[in-house]
Each structure stands twice: as structure tokens, then as C-alpha cells.
């Protein structure tokens, strides 16, 4: 099950349409209060450079306030009703809010959904069509957080909004337990179980979910060191897990679709946003990963390029589909000094600067063939001031970024 290496090559792509609609980018802002837990804000990625000259631009008005559990993850889903932003997850607190929530970007409605079968803190969410696969990010064998079932599915193909405003016609279903999570434990290992965390994940070709995990070093068992566990695959058609490769995926966290052929991820080697072409052969099984670094193509912009592309927060712009762009985000606190406002207020985080940089790249087939990389041809920078003195912000305030 070795990983095949071959010369990077992409197939020719269709010409882009001049009539392609502009992409939509939604920011999910977290609040340190229970109601609402999140706000949804829409920004325009290709707007003229704003706020980069010194004075930040106020963030556009929020589209919705989401009353939901904290510790959620959010993903875009194109349902039969249109583009939906779906949040899933929850913390230990009692049922003060739903653990599944839907924001309909067309109607602006906030729709509570069905409760997952187990509590999951910041679960790994992988949307495939109108289905959402939720995987516990850190499985637990003791306690009641991130406990079994660790892997669930929500099928939204028949989902409807009921008369009470809740989502009906769908429910969470248990899926096969990931074999690389701890399960068969002796009494001794149950007292100090091995701790695993999802290191990287990606959905490929609408048919496969790839996952790499890492094991934490336990103070109770100093002889154990962090080990590479390789790449595991879940075949959604066959509904089963398999070991795919002995090496880990080459990126950190989740990789996101970027056009019809590539995904974007944060390289574990360079800590920079990088494009990958991933091919899975399930019959062998085998895995092929081709890497395409992203650069500005300017030798005099290395420092700036490093800063802009070395961030964990980014999103691909799916329109136009044949030559998509992407956005990267940086956040920093902008709270006033403690001496300038009343003593009881300064402790809360209420202001944050969000820098959004939008990139367009040269044609993928031409760029890859000539430079073995994706070259940025244009970029726009916008600096927004997120301020909410009535509902304190999480730090950093950007919980998730969604694009349609």
C-alpha cells in the first residue's frame, strides 16, 4: 500500500464564463454568551481594497443570530432548498440550545435540526452532496463527551422545514466505528486509555473520506511516543473503513475542494496553504498525492507572501468553477486599553480586526505545466472591524468561513 509518486499533471479545463455569478463568503463569528452563540455575516471577496490604509472598515450587518450550542463546526451544504450553512456539535452544558442548526442563506431562516446520537466537541464535518458525515475529533472512552457513536451521518436529501420551524424528514444515523480509535480495553488500559486526535481529513471525489490521526503522549505511560498512524479511508458506497497508506496526509486539519481537480490544505512541511491533487484507488488500495505550492510569482514579495499564505483560516471560492480563487484570513484583538473604559467592561473581548485577502490564480493547467505551482495573479485586501459590545466575542472570533 505504498503511495505512488508521479509527475504533476492536470487535465485541461473548460474556459471560464464571463457570466459566472460572484462567490458568496459567510463569516461565522463566535460569541462568549449562550444566546446567541454565533452570528453570520456576509462579505464580498472581490470588493475594492478596504481598510488596508489604516482605518478598518466596519463589518457588514449580521444576517442572523444563531441560538445553538457552543463548540460547533460549520459546513456548506447545497440542499434541495438551496445553499445551507449547517452547524453540528455541542459542549457538556445542559440542553440550552440545539446541537444541529441550519441557516438558509436564501430565506435567512434559522432552523433547529435533529440531535446527534452523541455529544461531539468541534466535530470533523465532511459534506458529500446533501449528506453530512460527522466524526468525533478526539474520541473518548471515559466520560460523556465525544463518546460513542464516534461516527454519524445526517442525510438531508428528504429534509423539510416543519410547521414548528424545525427540520423534519432526517435524523442522525450511526456509522461503522473507526477501527483506529481505541475500543477493546483491558481494565488497566481503561484507567489510562490511549488518546487520539484527528490530525487531518479530506473528502475525495464524493466517494471517499480520508483521515490521519495522531496519538498524544501520556504522562502515565512515558514509554509511549507519538506515532504516525498512516491514512485511513472510509468508502461511503461500501460503508466500511480500510487502511489506505502507511504515511499521514501531507496537510494539517481539513483540506477543502478547490475546483474540480484540487483541494487546498495547510502543508505540514511548510505551514503554507498548498494545493493538492488526490487520487484514490480503492481496489488495490493505493493513494496518489500531487503537491502544487502557491506563490505570488514575485521574488521581491517573499516576506509578504509568507505572511499571507501561512494561516489556518482560508476558504476556496468555487465560482467560477474552472478557475477558482481563494481567501485567507487573519485575526487580532482590537480591544481598547483597560484604562480607557470602565473597569467592569475591559475584561470582555468585544473588538477584533479581521484581515481578508482574496486571491485569483492563473489558469490551473497552464500554471502547473510551466511552474509546478499555482501562481497568484491578483489579490485584494480588506480589513474589517468586528465589534459587538453587547455580546462578547470568542478569541479569535472567526469560528468558521463558508463559501458558495
Quickly list its features.
404 residues, 4-stranded antiparallel beta sheet, DUF1618 domain-containing protein
Please explain how this structure is put together.
With 404 residues, this protein is mainly beta. It has one domain (21-403): Methylamine Dehydrogenase, Chain H, CATH 2.130.10. It has helices spanning 187-191, 302-309, 364-371, and strands at residues 3-4, 25-31, 38-43, 57-58, 62-66, 72-79, 82-89, 100-104, 110-112, 124-128, 131-135, 151-155, 160-161, 167-168, 172-174, 196-204, 208-215, 228-235, 240-245, 251-258, 262-267, 273-281, 286-295, 314-317, 325-333, 351-361, 374-387, 393-403. The strands form five sheets. Strands 1, 4, 16, 17, 18, 19, 20, 21, 22, 23, 24, 25, 26 and 27 form a 14-stranded mixed beta sheet that branches. A hairpin with a 3-residue loop joins strand 16 (196-204) and strand 17 (208-215). It is globular, with a radius of gyration of 22 Å. The two termini are 36 Å apart. Mean pLDDT is 83; it is low at 4-19 and 341-346.
